[in-house]
Amino acid sequence: MTQPTFIELCKKLIGSDHVITDPAKMLPFVTDYRKRFTGKALAAVFPGHTRQVADVVKLCKLHKVPIVPQSGNTGLVLGSVPDESGKAIVLSLKRMNRIREIDANNNTMTVEAGCILDHVHTAAGQANLMFPLTLASSGSCMIGGNLGANAGGTSVLRYGTARDLCLGLEVVTADGDVWNGLYKLRKNNTGYDLRDLFIGSEGTLGIITAAVLKLFPRPKAQQTAFAAVKSPEDALKLLSLAQRFCGDSLTAFELISRYSLELVTRHFPEILSPLPFTYPWYVLLELSDAESDEHAARQFEKLLEHAIEEGVISDAAIAQTLGQSRTMWQLRENISAAQSKEGKNIKHDIAVPTSLFGEFIETADRLLEQYFPGCRMVTFGHLGDGSLHYNVAAPKGVSDESFLTHQAEINRIVYDCVNQFKGVISAEHGLGALKHVENASYKSGSENRLMKTLKKALDPDNLMNPGKVLP
């Protein structure tokens, strides 16, 4: 009697309609978000609940089939797509999109990994609460991927990363066991912190299937301002003043270069800047106030008046309407889209200590100009938490293709500089398959050994998202 194939067994476990093997239909699940790479897979499978995920994992373990967990597939480092071998399955969590519980008295929400971030925002708002993780991809990214990559976003300054916004997890391990760690507790000293182990592991240690998220009271008012500064050092002085004047009300503090803004208004002319582009750097600030619009406006006015008197800022504008606030945020959120329209560039998602931001930018800019004269820098990031998008575009007149042949050299200059300033080469996008080899070269031997020991202990067969995070 002929034994059923692996694919036939998958179909039996979760239903034929939820197992795709047609390469054309699998294309969206094996192609990365930026459309730079397309891998191959045995199948894309879509379990509907945690038990089905566990059953599929057990089947994969039995047949030695690698698994690439996938949520919204909005990652930027090839962490959620398979390689070109065609040996793995893509395990999509998109069907697991239920909000299991909102506990308003405990300020928590329990959600499945396939919940789209915008839907979480909406559900929290309906309970008159807020989930503060804010990303440009919030209409398509999912909670499982947010946690798998420990996403940051624009509100890290006040609320922290995805790790800080999660209390408990449900995880399917590499053995197909289900760890129910959906604790709704702020304090839990009962052993190793398994939650933090899986968050940020990019699906290489287990598959996050559900999470308990922290909720917060909705602010009564939000105010946005745009300020011009002469240098990143002046932006740091403004950050210090803003924290002194506004305290925890300061929820966003974004540093943006003039060239980044010029790209946005060039390719999206309907987005108007509140200030003329006559200064080299700009800062986008946001306050979330628990009292009123008037109180928030007074805080901003006092802060900006003091900053102008001290010579920290050169000009400033406070949004007077919701529309003006949205326009300010559109300037920030459309930088990546404008870069794509302008042409290809070499992207870096790095972090250095906030106090060294200015010195890092000055040093790295000088080195790149020395080796690649005329290269154009698209620099912007979350100054409040020390993370920076530091992107390098070709000089005028040089083709993208010619410039991209120097990617390895440019990465080395940037990453060596990051290392010099005690930073890391990935702040919020993760390592995936793009950065894992370079990352290992900047880690100490003991750190690399510890990570490999954890991987071997939790995934001895190396079936959980192989080729990601670790070389």
Automatic annotation (TrEMBL):
All residue ranges annotated as the FAD-binding PCMH-type domain in the record: 37-218
InterPro entries per the UniProt record, alphabetical: FAD-bd_oxidored_4_C, FAD-bd_PCMH, FAD-bd_PCMH-like_sf, FAD-bd_PCMH_sub1, FAD-bd_PCMH_sub2, FAD-linked_Oxase-like_C, FAD-oxidored/transferase_4, Oxid_FAD_bind_N
MF (Gene Ontology): catalytic activity; FAD binding
Key words, A-Z: FAD, Flavoprotein
Magnesium is among the record's keywords: no
GO biological process: respiratory electron transport chain
Cofactor: FAD
Similarity field: Belongs to the FAD-binding oxidoreductase/transferase type 4 family.
Name this polypeptide is given: FAD linked oxidase, C-terminal domain protein
Organism annotation: Oxalobacter formigenes OXCC13
Taxonomic path: Bacteria, Pseudomonadati, Pseudomonadota, Betaproteobacteria, Burkholderiales
